[in-house]
Amino acid sequence: MKKLINQAENVVVEELQGIAAAHPDLVKVHFDPNFVVRVDAPVKGKAAVISGGGSGHEPMHGGYVGVGMLDAACPGAVFTSPTPDQMLEATKAVDGGKGVLHIVKNYTGDIMNFEMAADMAREQGISVTAVVIDDDVAVQDSLYTAGRRGVGTTVLAEKICGAAAEAGRTLEEVAELCRKVNGWGRSMGMALTSCTVPQAGKPTFDLPEDQMEIGIGIHGEPGRTRMPLKTADEITEMLAQPVLADLPFQKGDHVIAMVNGMGGTPLIELYIIYRKLYHICHAHGITIARNLVGNYITSLDMAGCSVTLLKADDELIRLWDAPVKTPGLRWGV
Amino acid sequence: MITREDVVAWLTEFRRVIGENREYLTQLDSAIGDADHGINMDRGFGAVLAKLPSVAGSDVGKILNTAGMTLVSTVGGAGGPLYGTFFMKAGAALGNKTEFSAADWSVALDSAIAGVQQRGKATPGEKTMLDALAPASAALHAALENGSSQGDALRAAATAAEQGMHATIPMLATKGRASYLGERSIGHQDPGATSSYLMLKCAADTWDDR
To answer: Sorting pLDDT into bands at 50, 70 and 90, what band is B141?
Structure first.
């Protein structure tokens, strides 16, 4: 698998150096431990919001640092949870005296590392609240699993919570909003190919040419089911129906919809998926109030897509529309 | 008695074995994970090795605690907190000793395993590293109670860990990333149980009847 890299073990550091060079007006990059932080941190008197996760999901999370979204993001090794020292230093760097929200995706490693960091930050007198995102409907039975994975809704939560924090809401209010977003968001993804972790040098799993993987996560792991490839419209139905049924979304609902590329799928195809999603929502009497179509939470070079629907009321839409100025999302400025 | 030099030798040997098994562990982790266990452990134990010279003259507790904290800040994922906790708890149990007996090691191992269980919230049978560690602890207790030599007791623990590792193959994963695969996790050996077995095998090989 050809990649545009130098030495595989330097991928993350070199990426961070590239981010620092590309966006000095928006972010600063701290090394050892590694984290991306907004250029004006700490913003005094404001609750701060941080997140983090393995590298390989760009633009998430480092691309979402800036005004109106994350105060800081902690990048781990590729597909590997960041370590507590990263979150501790990031928490200290963004603490404006009003506490810090940790948005944590529901993966065993992320949960444990963020928990350890939060304990250490609290010992140092910083108020930390953590909210876990677990929006993936592909994992059905949470009694017998590590629980539903945190996927697409994470991006929407970071935007909405970032906006609320920017508007001066308290840590408790921002955390409650995060729980609300997590409660109203649902996602499902699929893959046409696996992906190649730089240091592994070959795809994580083999997917025959005529097959697809339904119910994937974002770390290149195999999904729930493998089946013969179907058309874009059929695939959209297979992703949208479980999402719609799970909340359940109802006639009259307004939603923020995201058709997300896994990194290796061109925009031309993502718009074909969105076309069908739009029709499906319309047929269900659901209005798509706002949308994102593109690469927002990726899995390196995996070809595939995910669909996220977030039920949205006026409050969430107002926060969605609020100005944001980050490498990955920019509007209203 | 197992000395602090023997502990350093164990960690050095484990680091070598991890490096040798990096591809293998990564392959196991591709089947039911995200293909990074070998890579992460290699990085973490490489960092531990780099730290060892600075603590080689300290007590066993400090050596193991340093190893644990280094793993927490370099391995990442679930492995970092779990292996980190393992070594930190073992270090806390052995404290300021500069040498210890197999019986002391049994106590430390149990404390380390309890830490891993508390951190990861798994129980045996969920297809995790515990499925190698828990049988090893039981075997070590049994061997010591039966009056086995230190070397035999450590080997009994390693053998039990190996059996536990193999026993994860038919298990359904209900913890960690493998659990998202549901029944597709069945038929694959757990990477964490594999690295745990290797760790205990290195202890048996390095410490033997010292």
So the answer is: very high
Active-site option among A30, A57, A61, A102: A57
φ, ψ for residue B65 (rounded to 5)?
-65, -40
Do A31 and A177 share a domain, yes or no?
Answer: yes
Assigned token pair, B153: 């007791």
Q: Is A254 a catalytic residue?
A: no
Please indicate, yes or no, if residue A191 is contained in any of the structural domains. yes
Q: Is A77's CB within 8 Å of B43's CB?
A: yes
Residue A107: C-alpha distances to residues A132, A133, B175 (Å): 9, 9, 10
Residue in B95, B94, B142, B136 with CA at minimum distance from that of residue B113: B136
Contact across the interface for A112 and B78, Cβ inside 8 Å: yes
- A264: in domain: yes
Give the domain extent around A294: 185-313
A292 and A326 assigned to the same domain = no
**Which residue on chain B is closest to A113 by alpha carbon?**
B81
Q: Are residues A164 and A212 in the same domain?
A: no
Contact B76 A77 (CB under 8 A): yes
Tens digits of per-residue pLDDT, A181-195? 999 999 999 999 999
The 8-class DSSP code of residue A196 comes to B
As for how many domains chain A has, the answer is 2
Q: At what angle do helices B102-120 and B150-167 cross, to 10 degrees?
A: 20
Pair B47, B207: CB distance under 8 Å: no
Chain B residue at shortest CA distance from A110:
B77
Domains of chain B with CATH codes: 2-207 (1.25.40.340)
Do A121 and A260 belong to one domain? Answer: no
A259-283 residue pLDDT tens: 999 999 999 999 999 999 999 999 9
Residues 6+ apart with CB under 8 A from B70: B44, B47, B48, B51
Are residue A49 and residue A132 in the same domain, yes or no? yes
ipTM rounded to 2 decimals: 0.81
Please say whether the dihedral angle defined by the alpha carbons of residues A224, A229, A230 and A236, taken in this order, is positive or negative.
positive
Alpha carbons within 13 angstroms on the beta-carbon side of residue A203 total 14
CATH classification of the domain holding A142? 3.40.50.10440
Nearest to B76 among A82, A141, A222 (CB): A82
